[in-house]
Amino acid sequence: MRTDYTNYKDIDFLDDDFFIESMISPTKESEFFWSELIDRKKIDLNEFISANMLLESIRESRYELPQRRKDQLWKRIETTRNSLKDRRKKGIRLYKYLTVAACIAIIIGLFFTSLFERNSLYHENNQEIDYAKFQSLHEQHGQGEIRIVTQDRQVEIDGEDAEIKYDNAGALTINNEAVNKGTVYTKSAELSYNQLYVPYGKRASLTLADGTSLWVNAGTTVIYPAVFPDHKREIYVDGEIYAEVRRDENRPFLVKTDKLEICVLGTSFNVSAYKEDALRKVVLVDGSVDIRLEGKNTRLVPNQLYTYSGQVSSVETVDAEIYTSWRNGIYIFRDEPIESILQQLARYYNVIMIFPQQPSGIVCSGKLELKEDLSHLLNNLSQIASFNFGVKDNQYRIQFNR
């Protein structure tokens, strides 16, 4: 029975023998297998790429295991070999390079084990790494500062906003300061992806190596290469971005989310695709885009909004500014449920909004300056939406007046 990878996190992939085997020693069959899962949306692409980055960083790490760990490693390798021999005698079909994959998996386990020892999270009587603790740390580490993760480094950026730029050779500057000066990437080099994470309460602008500009909203992850290859331009988004794509007739620009693919040549558009939101939205400002969903293409013209709810998709004519004004620190809303408005504010200001279980049925229209204090905004909003609120420990409790 094939493994169901639908809900796998990056650390789950690193605990999967077949994943490690197919990344270390890829075959046409394994490449087709993973490509098919990605195309059918049966895998979380962000987590898959993150696992690849983690695996690559481990393989290239110069960290030396202590002798005790090396002895333990070889002992476990021998045990694994004997186990595989027994399984072959029983007629169980094994993958061609499973022994190599199992050994690499053990190395990875020991590497993380040593990491946890240094952080007092691993106890001497444990034989395996506590993956739940590692995943918890991995998620917590993403809270707080804006950060960029590459194959060989991680950069954290202080402040609520960041300006991130790559030149056409892949050299990186952050807030006008060079980060990897002297590093030159070539299009013929093996493609590797960087990851930009913008937590709640913060925002960033990102200029890619081809000249495309992205405005990245709070709570968003963007995965992208330092330099695009000659034949394609692809990025991956979980959250919301506004993009001004540099036109290139030979290389269409593809934005992938967990559900949708947006293909363009040169245009301006907004994508909102937070995993926790029921709706996925694409708004076109100028140019044209093709939206691909489950084998069906939908083409938009300027001032059209595409929405997908997980069951149905629709296209309607709108004022695009309503959906793109956030990049200028303004939130415009038209006939929008008050719960949705408050949730957008919670994401922007990095707070928690707690609502009554029963929907209020209240819809509002207006404009908010997002640079103002949140309590001041809520006071003004409560006058038109008729609700009261209290705040404690960064949690805002909302009570609607019936």
The total number of structural domains is: 3
Q: Oligomer, anyone? A: single chain
Mean pLDDT: 76
**Extended strand count:** 23
Rough outline = globular
Amino-to-carboxy terminus distance:
54 Å
Major sheet summary line? 18 strands, mixed
Features:
402 residues, Jelly Rolls, Phage tail protein beta-alpha-beta fold, 3 domains, 18-stranded mixed sheet, three-stranded mixed sheet, 10 helices
List the helices and strands and how they pair.
Elements: H1 10-13, H2 17-24, H3 28-39, H4 45-60, H5 67-89, H6 98-118, H7 131-141, E1 146-149, E2 154-157, E3 161-166, E4 172-174, E5 177-178, E6 193-198, E7 203-207, E8 213-216, E9 220-225, E10 233-244, E11 253-256, E12 261-264, E13 268-273, E14 280-286, E15 289-293, E16 296-300, E17 304-308, E18 313-317, H8 321-324, E19 330-337, H9 338-349, E20 352-354, E21 363-369, H10 374-385, E22 387-392, E23 395-400
Parallel strand pairs: 3-7, 10-11, 20-23
Antiparallel strand pairs: 1-2, 1-6, 3-4, 4-5, 6-9, 7-8, 8-10, 9-10, 10-13, 11-12, 12-15, 13-14, 14-17, 15-16, 17-18, 19-21, 22-23
Helix pairs in contact: 2-6, 5-6
